[in-house]
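In the lab's daily routine, each protein ends up as an entry in a very long ledger. A line of letters takes care of the sequence, but it says nothing directly about the fold. The fold becomes a row of whole numbers, each drawn from a learned catalogue of backbone shapes. The protein below has been through that process, and both of its lines are reproduced in full:
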Amino acid sequence: MAAPANGPVPAATPGNSDVAAPRQRAGRRWILLGAAVVALAAMGYYLTPWIETMLNTVSTDDAYVNGHVTFVAPRVAGQVSRVLVDDNVRVKRGALLVQLDKEPHRVQVSIKQAAVGTAESDVAAAQAQVRGLVAQARSNRFKLDHAMEDVRNQIELLRSNKAQLKVEDANRDLAERDYARAESLVGKGAVSQQQFDQAKAALQVAQNRVTSAEQTIQQTRASLGLPINHNDPLDVPKDLEQNFSSVRAALGAVYNSVAQLGFTPKTWDATPKQAIEEFYNQDPEKNLDRIFERLISESPAVKQAEARLLQVRHDLELAELNLRYCDVLSEIDGVVTSRNVNPGNNVSAGQNLMAVRSLTEIWIDANFKETQLAELRIGQRVRCEVDMYGKRREYEGRITGFTMGTGQTLSLLPPQNATGNFVKIVQRLPVRVELTNYDPDKAPLFVGLSVEPFVYIKDKPEGPHAGDMLQPVTELPLRTPASEAVEEETAIPAKGSAGAP
């Protein structure tokens, strides 16, 4: 009959203890072996990625988030009327941040508008004045023609006087013959004394008329500015009508009129014919109306009035621009920081009011040791762990450039190693890492956060300038005297010369 289950255990015999001990040791070995396998599996699971990362990457713990910052400053001075944002407010580009008092600038706009109206009236007055000068120039031109006509009339009068002299010479010859006949017949009684006296008087009258005709010829020559010439009274220069004093005076009056229109002759010794031809040559078709229309538009008085009008219009544009500048806008998308302005403050142009930091233009500045730079290249993939998120979120990026100088040399007070107290230490070079999968709405990064980047040096670099140490030269516009001259000619039309008269 079996013993009860809760009864006393029978004492072990020497044979039973020898069999149970090996079984217990074998069980413990299996437990230890299983624990070792589990431990090795856990170590492999956790250590393999770490070892793989250590062998394939280069990392540093001296890295920080950096980003662009735009300092908000007014472009005009004034008193602040409203401040619409505060620190940490997210804004869009073009958002109104600060507003200045606009009333003084509105007054300036009104003043400039009045100045523009006055300048426009001055332009109209200058154009009317120049048209009057055109009419005067036309009148002086007709006076010049009249002066030349007078010279031609005097020359023809001289010829008429010469013909009259011939008539008087003929009358004198006839009177001389009549006198001679009367003188020979008066003694014979064939001619009375009265007839003889009449013949004698007729001779004297004829002689005096010849003398008078000769004096008239010399008077006409004197009026033409010619010397006395009894041998050839008609000795007149061919170009007398072009060079006579009254003609030259009339030509000077014409020059005086057109000079006020901005016309300058090639030479002041030109004859009226040459001057008129030169003036008409300003137009291919010799159209006088077009010539005067161009001279009116390019005359000094009109140009001066138009320049003044252009100046006051620019002043008006500047006043209107300053009025718009009373609204201080955000130039980028970002978050407001460092606000230091309040309503009622008087601010000056360029005074820092606040800053707007971009949420999208974010990158990592990783300060690698100089001993780690040998295998770093532009385009290499970078995995970034941010202390703020730890292992919960990683950011992908790529190297885009190397700063041209270590942090020590770019500091405000770089060390002077030439003094002799130099101690060699490992330098750090800032390497720029651009993020490729960054979305600020999901997991934003803030400037200054600590980052631990891992550069995969075994992976093939990708993207622009992959595999290079330096970026290529960027093609930017070059400023040269020639390009500046071209820009000025494009912006401001070249002034046309007044041309030949």
Summary: The longest helix spans residues 103-186. DSSP finds nine helices and 13 strands in the chain. The longest strand covers residues 354-369. Confidence is low (pLDDT under 50) at residues 1-7, 493-501.
